[in-house]
Here is the input.
Amino acid sequence: MKTNSFLYLGFFVPIIFWATTIICGIIIEDYNHFSNLVSELGALGSKPQYLFTAGLVLSAFLNVFFIIGLWKSCKKLQLNIIPILFLSLYFFIAGPAIYPMPLKLHGITGLPFPFLMLSPVLALIFWRKEEHFLKIRTVAIISFVIMMFSFLVFVPNVLNEYFGLKQRFLYSGWTIWSVFLSYRFLTHSKIKQITRNNNR
Here is the structure.
């Protein structure tokens, strides 16, 4: 497959994740996305357990190919791949899906996952010299700030009735960042292709 085909997955992986959580939430009676944990959707013995596992594992698997697309694009543009390596930590979402709550491995297998929030910060650092054509600064800052709000899960006195919302800040920021990177690298690829065709 061409690199561009992999880059399009930056749009589809978040769609799979959010569609999975929304559908599973509908299946569980009285589930509230703002107050209930994401993991409750795939908890051991829950109605949508296997659907939840399948959706998250599928998104983790497809994200690998998205990362490959980004890696190839970075190589062509001679960009540092460290921000992409941190974004690849989304793959670890498969762990908590395969080992549902309350199994001990549920929390352990997903430990590297939150560190993906460093991807936009590292992009600002390592890609700063290429900002003139990447134009990532604004979205990188926005997505990082949104993901940082997920740390509110450690502050029980803030939004204490909305633990699910606090969790979803991380997924929301990741969604914005993934979709934007997909869009930005695809746009740059198309511009480069048009320029190449015009020079023939």
